[in-house]
Write a structure and sequence with these properties.
The chain has helices spanning 49-57, 101-104, 130-133, 141-149, 196-200; strands spanning 2-8, 17-23, 26-35, 64-66, 74-75, 81-82, 88-98, 113-120, 124-129, 154-158, 169-175, 179-182, 187-190, 202-206, 211-213, 219-227, 230-231, 237-245, 252-255, 259-264, 274-280, 288-294. The chain is mainly beta. The termini are far apart. The chain has 5 helices and 22 strands. Helix content is 11%, strand content 43%.
Length: 295
């Protein structure tokens, strides 16, 4: 697991304390709101030691979201990082996310995926497969603009749909000045992201591109899946093909240990024409092209 924390300064009215807990294949996100001085009449709502332990370590069972305003007052000093200006906080939302196709559905789970977790004061906590929503032919432009304007609470980047949480890259956005808590190991604090995500995510390589193909010939094209420019032997995934010109007997390539191949036929093309095949992922189509001149 690779984890980064990025701090930013929000409008105070939207400041939230974030708690991130990971155990096995479950990610729990808990959101709390800082509160000022607590009147004596409400002291009975102070958290017990058991309630504090459950807040910092509790991993509820099952997949679900709970968007309810809490009444228990927790001390901010229990956080990994906190601002002593606010000595109390209340929980307002909680999500239990399980990275498993059985919970997410086969249409949501996919290779080369980024899961985004967001909070809206009116809608509460929610999550989405951000790469699937970016497909213009599936999502209206207005929705795309809205999605791109959202600053996620967290993003989990998943190379392949069979990967577990421990194989993913975490980006946690925290509110500077109020505090946060997590149980992740080896977390790096950054001020901006440059190539961390692109270096982590897989890419496609065609072994022999821009070649020649004989009229009537069936040509085998070998493709590799790389991570940071190097063949990834752990890549067991599916690539999706689309012919601009030429014919494909099959439109999917099963990658095993980073390698795979597909056949292409210059059907309907004459000498001098080009075979052009788009190669990509379920939610990242057309990442790279294969081209060949017919002779």
């Amino acid at each position: 697991m690779i984890s980064y924390i990025k701090s930013y300064t929000p409008n105070f009215n939207h400041a939230l304390i974030r708690i991130f807990l990971v155990k096995g294949n479950t990610l729990v996100i808990k959101l709390l709101r800082p509160i000022g001085n607590v009147p004596d009449s409400m002291k009975s709502q102070e958290a017990t030691d058991e309630q504090i332990k459950h807040l910092l370590d509790g991993m509820p069972d099952g997949f679900g979201i709970n968007n309810e305003l809490g009444l228990i007052h927790y001390p901010t000093k229990i956080l990994t990082s906190h601002n002593t200006t606010f000595d109390k906080m209340v929980k307002i939302a909680e999500m239990n996310f399980i990275l498993d196709e059985a919970n997410l559905g086969k249409h949501a789970a996919s290779d080369k995926t980024s899961w985004a977790f967001t909070y809206n004061p009116h809608l509460g906590l929610s999550f989405m497969n951000r790469t699937a929503h970016r497909l213009e032919y599936r999502t209206p432009l207005e929705t795309l603009i809205m999605l791109e304007s959202i600053r996620p609470i967290a993003t989990v980047s998943q190379r392949y749909k069979t990967d577990k949480l421990e194989d993913c890259l975490f980006i946690l956005n925290v509110d500077a000045g109020v505090g946060y808590h997590h149980n992740l190991k080896d977390v790096k604090e950054v001020t901006e992201f440059k190539t961390e995500i692109s270096d982590f995510m897989p890419s496609i390589q065609v072994e022999e591109n821009k070649t020649m193909i004989k009229v009537g010939e069936t040509k085998q094209v070998r493709v590799n899946v790389l991570v940071n420019g190097v063949l990834d032997p752990n890549a067991n995934c599916t690539l999706y093909l689309n012919e601009v010109s030429g014919y494909l007997p099959k439109k999917r390539v099963e990658i095993v240990n980073g390698k795979g191949s597909f056949d292409v036929i210059p059907m309907g093309l004459k000498i001098g024409d080009k075979v052009n095949i788009n190669i990509g992922w379920k939610n990242w189509p057309n990442e790279i092209n294969y081209e060949a001149v017919v002779y």
